């Protein structure tokens, strides 16, 4: 009986897939839907120095490495602007491609790759974000992690200050703060 | 486990897990059915705090715990408290619409749920049917069953939330939870890392200065320490004279959280305080210390174990008063709770506790020193009759106390959740208020029994759209053996504290939360309350009724929290409270009042400057008793690093 039921459910699942799979392939896991909205929120809680907009007036949210957001990030920022800066999404395969970027989500897993990305990032005022372990210790600025099934943030304050980024106290209050280089 | 609605297991987890397994078999994306657009819109409307609370494994996008609870619970976040501009813990209860809160003078408050704020000659501080816990430490006293609110101070910056249940919570919580339970929950040391320093100064609030520093030894051991000092000025009396009730307090403390493993966590925390307060005739000193240890072991998703132990000492003295009064209370408490499942649809929670309290007083209580051991146990079964749709919870508390011996407090709760945005609930509970020293030991001949209540409640929670949540509850309570003061011919005192009154009370509570835009949210609530107290013996003195409660009929509150452009915040809270009813002749009449508070703040990097006006509507107003609460304005600087 139990086996029959599983098969039955599988058939339903396949039928559902038939209707939805075309777009379904590009859909993000809910975890990344939430993270995409966080990236969008960061654009409003972070202040860049004027020189960050010398290349372009847009606020560019970049994704380095494999794209975990599907088309969700693009839809989240579509038509949005912050203080007169329209939001745009860019995808990068290599760190060297990046000319102007305000928020960079780094989706790399190898510690060496991450180190390489952070040290070779050309724009000076980029908020770096990732969800890999030890990201803030490597010099990254905001790391997502999960606790009790919810998203949490750790912010590396010295690194954001080095990049001349001002992070709203509201965001800081909701995050874990790494405030000295020792603690990283 | 200090909040019964944050239980770790939710049937959704299992269902979700099975769903994921099933979909994984055919290798298609799990969440493919929902259109991206609507999810984007919904998520984008959430404030950043709400976004942090979205369970990423389900994206349910609702504060799911609250909507599943079969009780009239209201939860106020630390952020809303921060934004209201209140300066001390008791003031924060103004934000909770199912509480009745009256400021007596500069340092005393009368706080109760569902009525029974009693009126002794000095003002309404004899509320005795509320259980109040600060991080799991019970702070109501066995002297008169109320709380010394002047010494209940927490650093509001580190406060996570206030959970307020109106209605009996006695099955889970204990002996004084007759009309309600307040849980004050502070953030963990892990959530309060770094330095925060604030200082405020103003007209009624003279000064409050606080500092907290949170740090960690490694990734599993987090510590914070804090210290604060405040000075509060005097209220004004009816005749325009200075109320001479200025007070000040120093307090410090720590919290340590050790995440020994994924399953085991250990918390130590403690506070010490020392204060000086005045009233019109006397100068009072207060002093106290507490230390708490709490171990939690997560055995599985559906099972956990909690062991908590604490020590608390509180002392006060009014040396220069006409009736000198000194009181010391020592409390030792150990509490063990265990939750485990039986089959798929039962979740059993049981616990045992032992509390030993010992007091000493110069008040005319016999004996002047008393040992008060309290043994208690409870068992509760939560039965998922139809998983996720119909839930039935039954249980009882059993306790043995020094005043009346054995007592039991059963309850039955039922919740029907026809869809994720709707919950109907109903409950019947029996609760007792075990006697206090005041009831049993003031008159020599008294044989005071427990007060009993049989409470019937029902409610409805709904979330018609993602941005709006509403809660409605209604109740009918029947009290028996209610306290009275009877004439007693032939005794030296001529009176005796007895149980010769009964009462019934009824009313409803309505509250709502509305996220109007991503930068503006509104909260509000309305409570209607009425009661009838009647004597059951001709010996009952006429003052006995008002002594148990002079309560307003209607209470209304609202809060508006706005994030404006360029780092500005603008916040408003307002409240209306009806006149106190049943005030006997010769006592000050307290008319209805409306007043509001406003806060404007500007954030610049790690600094926050704010200006707060409190009780702005009128020069001064009376909430209970003789003192008038003045309009006040203060400025505050906060530095977070």
Report on this structure.
By secondary structure, chain A is α/β, with parallel strands linked by helices. Chain A has helices at 2-24, 30-45, 72-77, 111-119, 157-162, 169-173, and strands spanning 46-47, 59-65, 81-82, 85-92, 103-107, 127-130, 142-147, 150-156, 166-167, 176-178. In chain A, a hairpin with a 2-residue loop joins β3 (81-82) and β4. The model of chain A is unreliable at 1-26 (pLDDT under 50). Chain B is mainly beta and 641 residues long. Chain B is 9% helix and 55% strand. Chain B has helices at 11-25, 36-45, 48-53, 64-67, 78-84, 89-92, 437-441, 544-548, and strands at 72-77, 100-103, 109-112, 130-134, 137-138, 159-166, 180-186, 194-202, 205-218, 221-232, 247-259, 264-278, 283-300, 303-318, 325-342, 346-361, 369-386, 390-401, 405-419, 422-433, 451-465, 468-487, 495-517, 520-535, 554-563, 568-577, 593-604, 607-614, 620-622, 628-630, 632-640. In chain B, a hairpin with a 7-residue loop joins β16 (346-361) and β17. Chain B is globular and about 75 Å long. Mean pLDDT of chain B is 85; it is low at 1-36 and 56-64. Classes of the chains: A alpha/beta (184), B mainly beta (641).
Distance between the termini of chain B: 31 Å
Oligomeric state of the chains? heterodimer
User: Helix amount of chain B, in percent?
Assistant: under 10%
Q: What is the arithmetic mean of pLDDT of chain A? A: 79
Beta content of chain A comes to 25-35%
CATH domain class name of chain A? Alpha Beta
Gyration radius of chain B, to the nearest Å? 25 Å
Low-confidence stretches of chain B: 1-36, 56-64
Taken from the alpha-carbon principal axes, the silhouette of chain B is globular
CATH architecture of chain A: 3-Layer(aba) Sandwich
* Number of alpha- plus pi-helical segments of chain B: 8
Tally of alpha and pi helices of chain A: 6
Structural class of chain A: alpha/beta
Average pLDDT, all residues of chain B: 85
Helical content of chain A stands at 25-40%
Q: Which strands sit side by side, in order, in the main sheet of chain A?
A: 3-4-2-5-6-7-8-10
At CATH level 3, the topology of chain A is Rossmann fold
Supply the helix-strand structural class of chain B: mainly beta
The share of residues in extended strands of chain B comes to: over 45%
